[in-house]
Amino acid sequence: MRILVTGGAGFLGSHLCDRLVADGHEVVCLDNLFTGRKENIGHLLQHPRFEFVRHDVVDPFKFEVDQIYNLACPASPPHYQYNPIKTTKTSVMGAINCLGLAKRVKARAFQASTSEVYGDPEMHPQREEYWGHVNPIGRRSCYDEGKRCAETLFFDYHRENKVDIRVIRIFNTYGPRMLANDGRVVSNFIVQALRGEDLTIYGDGTQTRSFCFVDDLIEGFVRFMNQTEIVGPMNCGNPGEFTMLQLAELTLKLVGGRSKIVFKPLPSDDPKQRQPDISLARRVIQWEPQVPLEEGLRRTIAYFAKQVR
Ligand code: NAD
Ligand code: UDP
């Protein structure tokens, strides 16, 4: 197949491009390099079945493709809050442009949605039926509401225009190729520990997240995209739930060194708990994360050890 990956030079997108090229597909990677890097796809640039296009998803684009994976959108809070209006435009206009293209060329369109559509959840763990608890006017809203609106657009194009869609809700995912200055917790803690700096816990560290290693997630993407039973939304993430204190302590144990843990103010609207219910993924795509947190952290530490210091 010929496949378009928007946001393909980013953390998840570059791993997805690797997988799709390895599976024998032709891949067009579209990215404006806001948080993505050419280094992430450098090894693919000379590949005959890979093409990089520097372009912004806010502006329309045309490609003859069979499938579209829409991943373009900064994912870490400091990056998506840097230009919040642009973040909303990226999610909303990016979805409209992907769906318009999918309609015209009859491609299947995949939306990388997020556990953030559940906001600060009152249902735990989160199932796909839950509508969420989201602040529409806070610092995280540009991302959360942009992604919620993108889901709406995907389902309206599906109902009104018969576009073949797949909507996946990704829970916190980590691994090699995250940016060292990304601002997300796993990369922050690892980079801080490697540099011998203190690990910054926001709040008291009792808030929880569930961390999925990138290889597991990409396997889930491909299985979900290529099944025909459901269009989603479908949760994808590792149900193992950890407090930020546990994550900091585990990172310190694995990296070693003399770093201490320090506490900083909790950002506004920071969800207190998050854990995916993945019964649907288990049933429909027989998917189960394989990489435990400790092993995934070791692999991610090995990557950052070459990047920083
Ligand atoms: P990332 O920031 O590494 O990747 C995003 C990519 O999109 C980057 O390459 C960036 O340059 C590109 N991009 C941003 N705005 C763009 C625009 N206007 N036009 C074209 N390209 C643009 O983040 P990631 O972790 O790889 O996330 C990829 C997708 O998955 C995002 O849509 C994100 O919301 C979603 N997601 C990720 C996670 C996670 O834990 N990693 C969780 C939930 C959802
Ligand atoms: N966090 C932290 N220290 C950091 C970065 C983040 O304690 O250096 C916390 C953050 O407040 C949140 C959790 O870790 O409670 C996960 O943050 P991240 O930005 O990785 O993802 P998200 O909040 O979007 O799930």
Describe, in plain words, how this protein is organized in 3D.
- By secondary structure, the chain is of the alpha/beta class.
- It folds into two domains: 2-174 and 212-236, Rossmann fold, CATH 3.40.50.720; 185-209 and 240-274 and 291-308, UDP-galactose 4-epimerase, domain 1 (Alpha-Beta Complex), CATH 3.90.25.
- Helix content is 39%, strand content 17%.
- It has helices at 11-22, 38-41, 77-82, 84-105, 141-161, 185-194, 214-225, 244-255, 279-285, 293-307, and strands at residues 2-6, 26-31, 50-54, 67-70, 108-114, 165-170, 173-174, 199-202, 208-210, 212-213, 234-236, 241-243, 261-264.
- A seven-stranded parallel beta sheet has the order 3-2-1-4-5-6-11, with helices on both faces.
- α1 packs across α7 (214-225) and α6 (185-194) runs parallel beside α8.
- The radius of gyration is 19 Å and the shape is globular.
- The site of nicotinamide-adenine-dinucleotide has 27 residues, from α1 and β5.
